[in-house]
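[SOLVED] Need 3D model of a two-part complex

Original post:
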Amino acid sequence: MDLENLLREDFDKIEQYLPREQPFEAGWLELNINENPYPPSRVILDEIKMAINEKLRLYPEPTGKDLRKMISSVFLVDKKTLTNPNNIFIDNGADGVLENIMKTFINPGDQIIYFYPTYGLYKTLSLIYKAKKKEIKLNDDFSIPESAYSLKGKLIFINSPNNPNGKAFSNDVILKICKYFPGIVVIDETYGDFCQTTALPLLKEFKNLIIVRTFSNSFSLASMRIGYAVANDKIIKAMNKVRLPYNVSYLGQIAAISCIKHRDLVFKQNHKIISERKRLSETLSKYNGISVEPSDANFIFVKFSDKSICLKFIWDLKEKKVLVRHISQPGLYQYMRITINTPDNNNKFLDIFDELTKKYL
Amino acid sequence: MDLENLLREDFDKIEQYLPREQPFEAGWLELNINENPYPPSRVILDEIKMAINEKLRLYPEPTGKDLRKMISSVFLVDKKTLTNPNNIFIDNGADGVLENIMKTFINPGDQIIYFYPTYGLYKTLSLIYKAKKKEIKLNDDFSIPESAYSLKGKLIFINSPNNPNGKAFSNDVILKICKYFPGIVVIDETYGDFCQTTALPLLKEFKNLIIVRTFSNSFSLASMRIGYAVANDKIIKAMNKVRLPYNVSYLGQIAAISCIKHRDLVFKQNHKIISERKRLSETLSKYNGISVEPSDANFIFVKFSDKSICLKFIWDLKEKKVLVRHISQPGLYQYMRITINTPDNNNKFLDIFDELTKKYL
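Solution:
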């Protein structure tokens, strides 16, 4: 048997989405992945522990009923948006939700639009689902170019706040796209809880809009793989038709419910991240030849006047066991993306960074 | 916007895989879903609890490295099969593995073959991935008809032990299919740990063979969504290319590792299920007009001489809060599928069943 002949068409063209570099020993400061530095609160951990019982033998509730109820009645209720459990779809992380959107709407050859730079999975999914893909280059300040408002296509992915620069797009911009775009508009608000901007209120007006959110980052549950979509109930019904019957683990559902119940504790931790984001941005901006993009996320995108200096910083940081994200792609070589951590760890990073400025700037 | 026009082609043709009926109050005896009646042992629950800590904030190890090592070095080592971690692929339940196989190999229009009756997801996946599907009717004794050995296609799904009848196909049969079938042969051994028959040893000989297994049933972890595939490393590498980057939860990986570590406890529980399967089969076979199919799984398929009597039993059982599975499909109306439970619950079922025999037989 020749395996190559059995693989699906265009298999070689698929570019695998590769997770970030991960050190396998302790002692590293990992600022290269956008995890929350604060673990779930003790009370949340205790509630998850309580659920480790004889029920583990059972299949999870297949529709995430209790979690959908909790999201709609508690989390969404003050967001001026759709608040019926039938407007919510649960899947295996935001990534699972994004893939299900592909399965629901995309035929081979359908036009998918996303911006550059942005989250890499949109491209990978477009390749896997054999869509035609159009990458629209963002302006130098990472805003959406005027040309985007006349685009046609089946689906557009918008990451807001956008990874890697961190800025959320305003609802004026999203509204304009929803109005003119003839297909499905997906706003991926993976980092949406680190700012006040959200497209959730637009859902009442636009039936072609899907908002994707996750418990991974703002709720410190990356390990558990819980994401959700909010949209028109017809879209949610269609998405349910093509998902796997038991797509989300029982403990994931329990953990997410507990996080919403104790959201005040969660938001208190996130406030610290937001104030640290401000502090790091201000501190780093003071160096000559360094600027920091405005961020609404739990990371900042730091620009060096020179690509080679940026790389020297990254190498030296790595020698000190500090990992930041370098995106080796056109136009991005002189940037590093830094995830906001606890004040202590941020100080550790700033100290090392300051040493390097003396060496290289 | 007209949503119907935005849905992918053939959306209406997809038949959603619907999970079984689930009562929402306590007090029901659910013999309609093939869950393990024994919860994970105390020591396994404790090891999962130990993992409920600050690590929940982190993304899971993306390749299931430790779990793959554990499966290959401990679980597979005495199975005369491939035993390298690179021969193992982890996903979100056996269902997740099956879907990833589709993503790896299937183009729209490719021929997929599966038997009838069998696990319903093969049909649903064929529809979602727009494959041509061919359902081959099993013989009346649920054996594979001779015609199956000359079939051509891209992929064949074989559930062994087969749901709903419960019998595993012998390796002579599987070997013959592997030899003649020009595409990928998928043996779904979801219920494979309830018998000695497994196609795992054939992996050394056949590069087109994929064995799918799960921790849901025999390891009592249905809640956690952990399945895996064992196959040639080239197949595993290809499957990794199209899966989502973080497809399996951290706690799922921890729980599965713990189950393998304490497999002796798990197998002891499963021995009880196997001996109860024998007892139930023998007891039910004694009634006039009732026969029981030979089973290698954790369920039995019980045949009534008359369809309407079968339905009367099912209705009356339901009135007594006992659920069994009725598969309302051609040729299967006179059967009920019963999941093996604990001796006490099985006795409860047998008592009610015996009453009904006096009423209806």
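Edit: DSSP finds eleven helices and twelve strands in chain B.
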